[in-house]
């Protein structure tokens, strides 16, 4: 009987209940909240569901992301190997390949002024960079944190890895993806604050048709120009434009379908769960993480405001031909930010259709955030 009792006691002590800290329970609660927002509210479920589940797993079983050096048998945890692909910038680059294959750059080509709106929204990144330095981050850490303002999770992960800030990669990635998911909550109050009812109701002229030749030349020309100026952006911009070329050239339908479907979703699973697994209580519940979350929010709000204010300027210069709301889509949360521009505009006039106009700044913001990351890498000689 003593043997049976000892066996049962050993089994009992092997359960997670004897190893969890209060911090683990806090993070498990956060994981449940993320799952609720993703499943019940529909906030970017493709991102939040795997992130939240990775968060849940690591706070119940920390060894799921343990490195081989820390493991008792010399074999790392399952999510450790997924996470290594984040650190090596492989998964973020593949995400960009899929995004490119899913994206129509037609609205941007039809209205090149959208490039300026996408660039204006990057103001939040550089504003947050200087604020991060004031809060005590070193220059490289400040750059890695500030890129959250672009609301672009893959670029945030990419830059953090390139700048050697892997210790901050988890909080940065979770903050970036969280703000991407919360775009419908964060942006509308800012958009309404800086615009009048009359401005929000402005109807824009239909975009001109874009030829197939223009769509084929666009990714080639952008790759050549951007990568010649900032070669370090090649993994992101190059993959984004390669995916788009698959889509537009019309001769590699199988590659386009694979990149935009099967490959894209496989990468999202690997990246999302591994990012979520970096949020153990020990790594996440500290002052540095709180600063990162705060700075990310400030950067995102500043970027939204800058896009809207620049949209107001263009509205004045064009005598009311541009609705300032589309400037908020300059952050690179594709296509959620463009949908928010449409939604806020439709609240003032249900017949106002801004979605395609907002997609121009939106996809410009993807390129702009990648360029901002390239600028930081060039500054630090990476």
Your description of this structure?
The protein is mostly helical and 382 residues long. The longest helix has 31 residues, at 287-317. The protein is built from 21 helices and no strands.
- Rounded to an integer in angstroms, the radius of gyration calculated over CA atoms is 22 Å
| Overall average residue pLDDT | 89
Order of helices and strands: HHHHHHHHHHHHHHHHHHHHH
Largest sheet: none
Distance between the termini: 65 Å
Q: Which ranges are low-confidence, i.e. pLDDT below 50, for 5 or more consecutive residues?
A: none
Strand coverage percent? under 5%
**Helix/strand/pairing class, anyone?**
mainly alpha
Q: Shape from CA axes?
A: globular
| Helix percentage range | over 70%
State the helix count: 21
Number of strands: 0
Name its key features.
mainly alpha; 21 helices; globular
What's the gist of this structure?
The protein is mainly α and 382 residues long. The chain is built from 21 helices and no strands.
Secondary structure elements and pairings:
Elements lengths: L1 H13 L7 H18 L5 H16 L17 H10 L2 H13 L3 H5 L3 H7 L2 H12 L4 H8 L6 H10 L3 H16 L1 H11 L3 H4 L11 H18 L4 H16 L3 H8 L1 H15 L4 H4 L2 H31 L18 H13 L6 H25 L3
